[in-house]
Design goal:
Mean pLDDT: 84
Order of helices and strands: HEEHE
Structural class: alpha+beta
Strand content: 25-35%
Strand order of the largest sheet: 2-1-3
Shape: elongated
Length: about 80
Amino acid sequence: SIALLNSCANIAKGLVAPNQCKKCEVYLESTGEVINTYEGCGSENVRLEEEAKVAAFDYIKSTGNTEVNVRCESWRKEPEAE
């Protein structure tokens, strides 16, 4: 039932805000090096920040390096002309 709810959330978000985009980066605070990038628009941007935070946690657990952070930005893309 949780998978069904997640699917419904993705569909609803894609219908309501298809042009809403988000990009989240997992990066090292000391160097600014980007470890992972998560990006999507509409239904593809659902839970991007959560995915990035899980990736940051996994990185900390596997390396012991705690200088990891997540930054996200959102924007609206112009609708495509038909």
